[in-house]
Amino acid sequence: MNFAETLWSLIVIFLYLSYLVVMFQIVADLFRDSELGGGLKALWILLLIVVPVLSALVYLVLRGRGMALRQEARAQEAVTSTEDYLRSVAGAPGPARQISEAKELLDSGTITEAEFSMLKAKALA
What we know:
This protein is mainly alpha-helical. The chain is built from 5 helices and no strands.
């Protein structure tokens, strides 16, 4: 096999894998979309099987923005879920406890009024 054939094979493999990634993203988006009915989901799947490249391009043009918004919402939910879990595991004190600890430091003279205000604002954020 010469260099040109090897290069062409690599390009074809790359394009095929890219095509598979796009198809899996579309199918996953179809199944995760709660607003789309079952009949339309089945129609999209059928179109993806019969005319895969054309239907994938049409799907991305027609529903690409919604697909991106749903992906962003899932990512935000994952971040929120992870942060909540980490807070529960770490046992971080709540805002009221943080403020009371800061007040104790203020009363003992360890911090100034400005530092107390900053800690209070941070706890309430």
